[in-house]
User: What shape does this take?
Amino acid sequence: MYSQGLIGADGKTHEDEAFLNAFQARIDAEQKIEPNDPMPQGYRKTLIRQISQHAHSEIIGMQPEGNWISRAPTLRRKAALLAKVQDEGGHGLYLYSAAETLGVSREEVTDQLLSGAAKYSSIFNYPALTWADIGAIGWLVDGAAIMNQIVLCRCSYGPYARAMIRICKEESFHQRQGYEIMIALCNGSDEQKELAQDALNRFWWPSLMMFGPPEGDSVHSSQSMIWKIKRFSNDDLRDKFINATVPQAEHLGLTIPDPDLKWNEQKQGYDHGDIDWNEFWRVVKGDGICNRDRLKKRRKVHRNGAWVREAALAFASKHAAQQTADAQIAAE
Amino acid sequence: MTDKTYLFQYLLRLADDHLILSQRLGEWCGEAPTLEEDLALANIALDLIGQSRSIYSYAADVENKGRDEDHLAFVRVERDYRNALIAEQPNGDFAHTIARQFFVSAFMVPFWREMESSNDLMLAAIAAKASKEVAYHLRHASEWVIRLGDGTEESRERMIEALDDLFIFTGEMFEVDETVEAMIRSGVCTDPSSLMGEWLQTVQSVIAQATLEMPDTGFMQTGGRMGRHTEHLGHILSELQYMQRTYPGQVW
Assistant: This one.
């Protein structure tokens, strides 16, 4: 999912063996690595990539749900949705700050997002077409995010792990909020139930894809496992998500759109049908239905806000200069 | 009209002001010039939605016809909305949004403060919470008026234009008609025109700090309290009411 950010991480370092061994010993002893600690370049690069792409996912993720703020069906739902999208912006903010502790500025990583060089979670390239999608996104997308993020609370890099603790609390609230929207729909009219089923049909498979391809194909996972940035395989997390979610769908009276989904007594978990990884890669590479719109919108927002940011900087520097001058006069 | 009918009308106006303005601010979510502003504008919008909910619920109780906050907020026709015209004005650029929020918040600060001593206990309780919230809204908007006015050449021009464009809608906040008179008589609210002095002082002082001039005062637009709106309101409602109109009478 957000660890799609690991695509392309190399983990190469120029440090000598004693340094690397000492670093690994700290990791193995479950000591947190802090911003000023020495760390291999590869570790730093991997984290910058992962954290900034996680941040970008939060920011781009504001779009599909933001699309429904003006149309939410009740005042209570409107307030909850607006607060949720605001939380996502807040998550973006802490994550950009966590990335800054590794030596990259928000501007730098934002430029990477806007130029298309950095990725964000592909799930946000799927559109939020109906109100039920707001429920499904909270339930499934936030649900899948939590599976991954709970583990990140124990990530070896301190600032990221700590940011994730707060983020997870909020995500779990969002997930319950989404599920509650689904409950209301499923307790409602036939038309509302159809909306709920349709949203599940469209979001189920993309949610499973959020965990990333199976390990055999995910070349960057093993180094991240050794560094304890990542602790479970994509497939393990995906299975955990499916096992948790199927009973929730049953409780709603909805059908998971996978005819091959069945309980496997031996592994005490569900087996699922084949995931269409061609679709996954197509969307990752830019050909999802919303990829172009998402980036275009982000670029437009960035462009439209430029004069405001310039004004704020100009004002701040004018007044900093004024303050210095005043201080000099006072000193004389 | 009975006192209850006047009170209901008065509450609707107040709730509509908050709802329509929050709908406008919500349009910024994900589109603000910085991430910090995305959070700040959403925060203000959330405060306003919260205030509108309390007021609509109270209005529904006063009316006592089985309607609830959502009926009042979503299922009325355009001419029945009673918000001041300033609330429905388009976001425009960031300077316009700031100017609109600045003018409104500079009014809401003394308004809610006075409301805290309303003899309507429900409104007094709503006022106690709202007072704290609008103090922040005013500080936020004032800081931006100053920053943009005294920022770059471009931001200065945009801020001047925004203040000029919106000033004409500010007079409506102070109007006293039959409904407001009835509310003043029964001690529900103070005379809004008595808040003009404080409002002007706030506005003048911030505009001066922004190194700008006060917009020319002249004719003031009016009509929102009678349901005579600008063309913008209909479009706001078409989004606001979409779900309630498409799927009438369902529970969400």
Observations:
- Chain A touches chain B through 46 residues (CB under 8 Å).
- The two ends of chain A are 60 Å apart (CA to CA).
